[in-house]
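Incident log, entry 3
Record: Peptide/nickel transport system ATP-binding protein (380 residues)
Problem: checksum mismatch between cached and fresh output.
Input:
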Amino acid sequence: MTNGIDTNEPLLRVSDLTVEFPTDDGVVHAVRDLSFELKPREVLGVVGESGSGKSVSSMAILGLLPKTARVSGSIAYRGQELNGLSYNEMRKFRGNSVSMIFQDPMTSLNPVFTVGAQLAEAYLEHHKVSKKAAWAKAVEALEQVGIPQPDRRAKQYPHEFSGGMRQRVVIAMAIINDPDVIIADEPTTALDVTVQAQILETLLRIRDETNAAIIMITHDLGVVAGMVDKVQVMYAGTVVESGSVDEVFETPRMPYTVGLLGSNPDPSLIGQRLTPITGAPPSLVNLPSGCAFSPRCPLVAPVCHESEPELVEAGGGATAHLTRCHRWNDLAGYEDPKKLFARKEIGAEEPIAALMIDNPEVVVEEHLADSGDQQKEAAS
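Fresh output:
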C-alpha cells in the first residue's frame, strides 16, 4: 500500500491479446497472444524492432484500431473488460482512465487552436465544469509538465513551441484527467539528448505525483535501462522475453534480446564495429514455421523450425523471467553471449578510430600512406 494505493492489485491486465488485419495478400498477424499485468506506479518498457507489434497492441488497449481489425483476448481495466465495448463506452475510459502520449506531437495537436483551448477541451470531455475552470486546469497542467509562464503560453499555438515543449504539451494533455495508466509511444523520438532526459524526468515525476502506471514503448534501450521496472521484448507480434529490467539486460535468455543489446552502441568499445542482427524481421502475413526468429538466430537447431516455443520461466529471481526459446539453457552457458552475433567481415581491418586511441600519430601516417599507395595503383 503506497499513499492509499494498493500496489499489488493490477490496474491493467491483458491476456492472450491477438490482433489481425485481413488484407488482399492474406491475414496480417500483428499481435499474437500478448499477456501482461500493470500495477500502480509501475513502469513497463516495451522494446523491439519496427513492426513487432508494440504500437498496435497499445492502440488495441485504447480501442483505436480500424474497424477491419480483428481483436481477441482480454483487456481488463480494474477488472472491467474493455475489449468489445462500443465507441461511446470506450470514450469514458480513453483519456480519462487510460491515456496515450503519441510520438509525433505535431500530428496530435491542432494547429488552428491554442494549446490552452485544446487542453481545456480534453478536460471538458470528462468533467462537467465551466470553461473558465477548464482553462485554469489547462494552465495548471502546463505548469505541471514544466512549461514556464504557463498562463501566457496557454494562449499560444503549437507552432510557437519548440519540439520539446510540444512534447510536454502532449504529456499535459495525457495527464490532465489524472489517468491511472499512461501509454507513452516513443515520446522522445526526434528530440535531442538533453530534451529527451527532461521529458523522461517529467514522466517519472508525474508518475510519483499521481501514482499512475506507465507503458513506455521505445526502441532506445538506454531509455529502458534507466527508467522502467519491467521490460518485455517483442518480435514478430509476440513477446519473446520479459522480466525485470536488471535480469533481462544482465542475463538475457533469448538470442534476439542478446542481439538487441549487442547492437546498442557501447562507449567502452569506441572505434569498434557494432554487431547487428543479420537479416530482417519476417513477414507478418507468412510467418516462418517454428520460432519466428529462427532464420536469423545463431543458435538455431532443428527443433526451432518444427514448433514455436512456449513462454517459459528462465530465472529464479523475485520477478518472473520468461523467455520464448527452445535453447535458452544453452544460451545461459555462454559467458559472453553477444559474441554469438559477432562476425568477421571480408576485407575488414582493425578500425582506424580504435588504433588512433593507442597511437594517433602512427595511425594517421600509416593510413595516409595506404591511401597514397591505393591512389598510385588506381592511376597505373
